[in-house]
């Protein structure tokens, strides 16, 4: 783990709703990174009470769609030389490729290895996606 306050280069995903930090961590497969990763749970936030934070050293190439699918209200800060050089507000992607896995065991995207999963946003408020291959509804909240 790295110091909460110090990150020379990398990404800080801030203002994650409490409980969702671990989901982002898992969906981004951050346990497989060689770089330093910090997952901070229930940090005190002046604006929203508690929040989760994810810090990733060096790796500036994470899948932002995966973050926004889990928590579109999170903010992503890109850090260079200990300074925030870019702040990104997230938006739910209309189409999500290769992130979510279809839960339908007979879906062609789960049975055929070379087919990338593809989901289409059908309800922004409820964060619901529909599989482009079998119409299976994926509820991100679950
Ligand atoms: Zn499917």
Q: Can you put this structure into words, describing what you see?
A:
The protein has three helices and nine strands. It has a five-stranded antiparallel β-sheet, covered by helices on one side. A four-stranded antiparallel β-sheet has the order 6-7-8-9, with no helix packed on it. The mean pLDDT is 90. It folds into two domains: 8-87, Alpha-Beta Plaits (2-Layer Sandwich); 93-137, SH3 type barrels (Roll). It is mainly β. It starts with 9 loop residues before the first strand and ends with a strand. 21% of the residues are buried. It has helices at residues 21-27, 64-70, 108-111, and strands spanning 10-16, 37-45, 49-57, 75-80, 83-89, 95-97, 118-123, 128-131, 137-139. It binds zinc ion. The site of zinc ion has 8 residues, from loops. One of its GO terms (biological process) is pyrimidine nucleotide biosynthetic process.
